[in-house]
Amino acid sequence: MIRTKYIAGNWKMHLTKRRASTLARDIVAAADSSDSAVKVAVFPTFVHLDHVRRNIRNSNVVLGAQNCYGKKEGAFTGEISPYMLRDMGVQVVMLGHSERRHIFGETDKMIFEKVKIALRAKIDVMLCVGETLEERQAGQTFEVLVRQLKVLKAVKPTQSSRITIAYEPVWAIGTGETATPQIAQEAHAECRRLVGKVLGDDAAQHIQILYGGSMKGSNAAELLSQPDVDGGLVGGASLTGDDFSPIINAARALS
Ligand code: PGA
What we know:
This protein is α/β, with parallel strands linked by helices. It has one domain (5-254): TIM Barrel (Alpha-Beta Barrel), CATH 3.20.20.70. It is built from eleven helices and eight strands. The structure holds 2-phosphoglycolic acid.
């Protein structure tokens, strides 16, 4: 298999310092460092990054941040530079999450700047894309993917192995309404085709495209067995070891 399965937990604005540390330790146990068949990453809040970093030390679990600003440094009160994240031991940053786009008004132009500078700061990028319910109902899903994936123009050819895509239909996020495996596969195949147009066929074959939107233990295997679904970006079901471990195990069983 050319692409390793990749399971990531997006903790959003949840957990306390203590619960974040416990969860991190549970995930290290579930991820099993001796087994590299599945890549596992966690995305805590900024303030929990250091606690989580200590708890995943000496494991293969990857430390991610949920956002960054599109500049190296300066008078940007309340913002965090990817260079600071790098300095804190963060390996990957999530950019363009639908909550950033729809609640905080992030545009593709802003996301383009963030992708560019994060890669320059030597942090990998998980770029999130996906259509709203209105866009899907209007038959605009592929159009939205074309527009959002134009951000990949910020990626230099030598950087393409440091990008992951998360296809997250907005109507499936936190709603309990998961995309059918067929809907996910169709969108993932289109994302892969679009990656190929911008970054070339080789990059398209190697890039991991994760599905996000109400993934849980009971539906993970079916989604992950689709040919272009290389993993999952999990929100609600990533907040306890009991919910998250079955998803890691489903990915392992398919590896
Ligand atoms: P969900 O969130 O699994 O709770 O739907 C996914 C995400 O927003 O990344």
